[in-house]
């Protein structure tokens, strides 16, 4: 079944005296423009992943019939206005936030035993349920507290902590602290950190 996504818009001129009409192009038309490797290179997701994510968050996307503002031309040839791009990014982000816990969670029960066994097979270290690491994700310059977000490489970023299982699946992701916050503080203030604190008191 074809899926209609407003992110991929084309404009049609009906006549010089009439307003432009928005035409929703089929997501599959856009996906067919690229082979599998090019899709991953440009969008960081495979064809199957894009279709699955779209299906999962379709109910959280707001399709509106607003008039088009000045177009923003992306390097990938997708022409949308800046306002539309911002709305779509917001809607997709909120949709992903709603379904997040269906896919990202700490292993429990038999899954936890399976994960600790896999880690033991890899490094012969018992009782490991995840690997924790942090990274800086580049962001646009914030309008407030800018200095807190500028990192040592002189670009703005947030400090993201992630916990991963042995097969590369995320168990936890925390992405809300500015660059200036130390990893130890992020760990202490994370849900996992609070859980460990209670467990080992």
From TrEMBL:
- Look up the record and name the cofactor or cofactors this protein needs: a divalent metal cation
Entry annotated with the keyword Metal-binding:
yes
One Pfam short name: DDE_Tnp_4
The protein's UniProt keywords, in alphabetical order, are: Metal-binding
Report the superkingdom from the record: Eukaryota
Which residues does the UniProt record annotate as the domain DDE Tnp4? 132-193
GO terms, molecular function: metal ion binding
Quote the protein name from its UniProt record.
Answer: Nuclease HARBI1
Protein species of origin:
Oopsacas minuta
């Amino acid at each position: 079944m074809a899926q209609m996504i407003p992110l991929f818009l084309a404009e049609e001129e009906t006549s010089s005296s009439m307003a432009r009409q928005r035409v929703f192009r089929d997501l599959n038309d856009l996906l067919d423009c690229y082979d599998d490797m090019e899709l991953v290179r440009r969008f960081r997701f495979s064809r199957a992943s894009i279709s699955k994510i779209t299906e999962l968050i379709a109910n959280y996307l707001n399709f509106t019939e607003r008039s088009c503002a000045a177009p923003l031309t992306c390097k990938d040839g997708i022409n949308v206005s800046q306002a539309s791009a911002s709305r779509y990014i917001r809607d997709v982000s909120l949709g992903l936030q709603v379904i997040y816990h269906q896919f990202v969670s700490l292993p429990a029960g038999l899954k936890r035993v399976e994960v600790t066994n896999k880690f033991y097979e890899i490094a012969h270290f018992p009782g490991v349920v995840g690997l924790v690491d942090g990274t800086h994700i580049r962001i646009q310059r914030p309008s407030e507290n800018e200095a807190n977000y500028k990192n040592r490489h002189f670009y703005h970023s947030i400090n993201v902590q992630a916990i991963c299982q042995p097969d590369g699946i995320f168990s936890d992701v925390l992405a809300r602290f500015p660059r200036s916050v130390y990893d130890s503080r992020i760990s202490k203030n994370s849900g996992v950190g609070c859980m460990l604190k209670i467990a080992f008191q």
